[in-house]
Amino acid sequence: MSKRIVVALGGNAIVTKDGTAESQIRSIKKTMETLIKFIENKDQIVITHGNGPQVGDLLLQETNGSTVDNPAMPLDTTVAMTQGSIGYWMQKSMDEVIKEKHLNSKIATLVTQVEVNANDTAFENPSKPIGPFYSENEIIQKKKEHPEYTFKEDAGRGYRRVVPSPKPMNIIEAPIIDDLLSENVIPIAVGGGGVPVIREDNNNNLKGVEAVIDKDFSAAKLAESINADELIILTAVDNVFVNYNTPKQKALTNVSVKELKEYIKENQFAAGSMLPKVQAVINFVEKTGKKAVITSLNNVEKLITGGVGTVITK
What we know:
single chain; alpha/beta; Carbamate kinase; six-stranded mixed sheet; four-stranded mixed sheet; 9 helices; globular
């Protein structure tokens, strides 16, 4: 039976060592060759993706090339720019795969706005790292160049700029995404967590803000908003693990929301890595009563035919 599925891609589906457009396109083509299996199974899918390395690189390019007459773009705009560039790569690659498979699906990239609360406490405590690492000596100069930025030390690896990461409240283009699915279009949407916007002027107008929304939370909100049957988060590992990298390591297969919450209390999941994925699927399952899956990109075919990975239910 066909399903409506939101598929959230991790950075491993795009990122390559050299970071060139050509190498990232090659990586994306392989990813699209995997995701086409959902279409062959007659499922409706929405593809969402991260943009952390890409938006960081773009911000660096913007900053280094900034002049009075040609100033760097604000963060909400660079999020939109990377939504467009990554979406273009994905759209082109998936279109090629669709033609190779002689399927009749269409694909379109939608630059997506995601509403956040202007009073979200995240704006008071920037925490989302973006861009490159800096040494102690480099960070002194960077702070002089950009006194408006916040920098934090990142796990002994150096200093990075951090920005607010508010929670998504509303996917502005959700009705359009719903319409596209009904017309046999594969939408690429909510890239990089979506462009963060707040309401102003008596809630009539949207305004972009300097923030980055976690892509998995936005994928969960989108899946809820379009009444998806399933949320699938594809990452670098086959399963969610407890006691990770210890002799007691255990892969979770079928797990309830209640069990996951207990594991969170035990600090089983790394912040900035597996924790937001787990929290995102909890949100989706609690609000919809439907299931979510966390697994690797390599497991997609097994996932379709028989189920594999960590399956989360209420």
